[in-house]
């Protein structure tokens, strides 16, 4: 009965929080700021998925003894891993990066999650040419044509945080230009905070399913991943060493 009451509170608080933030917030912002509108949609998806996954685990374990709960939890992993992957694919960007991190943690998380999250390595969003051009010109402070004699509009590779284009400079050098997806730096901090809040809510009602370590990994590593200056310095250091 106590678990049932906790499930009821979890259902209301997680579901209502995700719905209120995602729907009402998105509606209020959709006309004035499309980026925040999209963020509201992603928040709503996070809340819905957190609610469904929490309910799935709690219901599977309800009324069982310790041994049976362990078995029920294992049986619930595959379907919840699929739910999490579906969320990450829909939200893209940083969320795909989260999936890629999870896909490397063979000995830390259930195998069902590792297997599903590895699909994130093949999921690569592409920024539009307009976004790419705007990002380059904002960063360099001048028109793209002043820097490059030619620039391929279609990327030769794309990943969760950036994509790569071929270009030729005015002195004839053929270069690879790595362009960060435009919205990431502005939205990264807020979206990490959102994920952290959801994980804290889930952990409050279901302490055994806490994933604070994942949030800590995101807070530590994603800002580093978005720092292309540091990445260039590291690449140059590797070049000198080799």
Q: Ends: how far apart?
A: 64 Å
The count of DSSP E runs of length 2 or more, i.e. the number of strands, is 4
Low-confidence stretches: 1-5
Q: What is the total number of structural domains?
A: 2
Rg, Cα atoms, Å = 21 Å
Note the total helix count: 9
SSE order:
HHHHHHEEEEHHH
Largest sheet: 4 strands, antiparallel
Q: Residue share in helices?
A: 55-70%
Shape: elongated
Mean of residue pLDDT? 81
Beta-strand percent range? 5-15%
Structural class: alpha+beta
Question: In words, what does this structure look like?
Answer:
Helix content is 66%, strand content 9%. By secondary structure, it is α+β, with helices and mostly antiparallel strands.
Throw out a few tags for this protein.
242 residues; alpha+beta; 2 domains; four-stranded antiparallel β-sheet; 4 strands; 66% helix; elongated; disordered N terminus
């Amino acid at each position: 009965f106590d678990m049932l009451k906790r499930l009821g509170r979890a259902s209301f608080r997680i579901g209502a929080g995700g719905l209120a933030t995602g729907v009402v917030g998105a509606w209020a912002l959709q006309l004035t700021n499309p980026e925040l509108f999209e963020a509201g949609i992603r928040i709503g998806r996070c809340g819905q998925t957190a609610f469904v996954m929490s309910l799935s685990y709690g219901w599977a374990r309800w009324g069982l003894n310790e041994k049976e709960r362990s078995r029920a939890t294992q049986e619930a992993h595959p379907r919840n891993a699929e739910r999490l992957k579906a969320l990450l694919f829909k939200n893209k960007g940083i969320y795909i990066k989260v999936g890629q991190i999870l896909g490397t943690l063979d000995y830390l998380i259930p195998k069902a999650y590792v297997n599903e999250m590895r699909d994130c390595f093949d999921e690569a969003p592409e920024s539009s040419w307009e976004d790419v051009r705007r990002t380059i010109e904002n960063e360099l402070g001048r028109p793209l044509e002043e820097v490059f004699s030619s620039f391929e509009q279609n990327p030769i590779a794309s990943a969760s945080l950036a994509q790569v284009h071929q270009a030729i400079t005015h002195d004839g050098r053929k270069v690879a230009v790595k362009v960060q997806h435009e919205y990431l730096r502005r939205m990264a901090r807020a979206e990490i905070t959102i994920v952290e809040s959801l994980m804290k809510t889930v952990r409050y009602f279901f302490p055994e399913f806490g994933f604070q370590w994942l949030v800590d990994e995101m807070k530590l590593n994603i800002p580093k991943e978005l720092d292309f200056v540091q990445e260039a310095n590291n690449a140059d250091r590797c070049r000198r060493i080799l």
